[in-house]
Amino acid sequence: MEGATPKTALEEFVKHLLENGGELELGRAVSHLSQPNRKLVSDYGALEFVKRYPRLFMVNQTRQKKSKVIVKLDVPLKFCPQAGETGGCTDRRCDKLHLCPFFVKESCKFGDKCKRSHDFRDEHTIRVVRHFRLDFLSSSLLQKILKIIVEEGEIQRAAANRSVPDICKFYNKAVCKKGELCPCLHVCEHFVDGDCKFGATCKRNHDFSDDHNTTVLEQYDMDGISIRRVLQFRRERERKRTMSASSDGENR
Ligand SMILES: [Zn+2]
Ligand SMILES: [Zn+2]
Ligand SMILES: [Zn+2]
Ligand SMILES: [Zn+2]
Question: Which residues surround ligand 2, an ion (CB under 5 A)?
Fold first, then answer.
């Protein structure tokens, strides 16, 4: 019989999250686990299991349904910007990674000549990972998690940069009169938020590959970055901003 241990269950759990862009509904994540791991996690209590690893996961109840819990990978590891500079990072107590983010994504052009480390087991990486008590992760799992962190950084930079198309408000209310000439994306905003209740039967677009959206996106250099995640990040940020603006008003 295959032995399910908290470690194998955790690895499988993280793998499913990674396959889903680092975020998944808790019930769904558990239902995807193989039988022995699913039993172990369920016996333990899915939410309790996730909460055992506060350095790995962030747990969110959704706005609409209180019973729905979203689990997100949230790892405190960061890449040191100094490591790529001439001379490298000289801070001996630096708690950021000196690994090459491009190497993590398997796309570093510099190879042997790269100023940053291309070794997950180098001394500094081991120390940083241990510092955050994440040294129970296998190298391959660590690499996958770091890849998500690199991509998250790219998504945040793309979202901060105004050169990302907006979601068309008219299309989401009723019809967009501009039709094909509209410079905005014709995509379901609930799909972007991850909470469209119509799913496959939704009459609005749940992908970006139709003629209109393809034409709109051609004007922007998205270069392998998930447009959905960029838009999602941006909408979350705008929501937070309006929320804090309205609470500022109340304090007056
Ligand atoms: Zn450093
Ligand atoms: Zn490199
Ligand atoms: Zn439009
Ligand atoms: Zn929809």
Answer: 100, 102-103, 108, 110, 114
Query: Is beta strand 23-25 parallel, antiparallel or unpaired with respect to 57-61?
Result: unpaired
Listed in sequence order, the DSSP H helices in 161-226 are: 169-173, 189-193, 211-218
Residue 1 has pLDDT above 60, yes or no: no
pLDDT at 243 over 80: no
For ligand 1, a single-atom ion, which residues have Cβ within 5 Å? Answer: 80, 82, 89, 94, 96
For the chain, what are the domain ranges? 6-73, 81-159, 169-246
Q: How far is CA 228 from the centre of its chain?
A: 11
Q: Give, rounded to a whole angstrom, the gap between the first and last alpha carbons of the chain.
A: 64
**Ligand 1: distance of its center to the CA of 162 in Å?**
30
Q: What is the architecture, at CATH level 2, of domain 6-73? A: Orthogonal Bundle (1.10)
**Residue that has been written with the tokens 């042997």 in this structure:** 112
pTM: 0.71
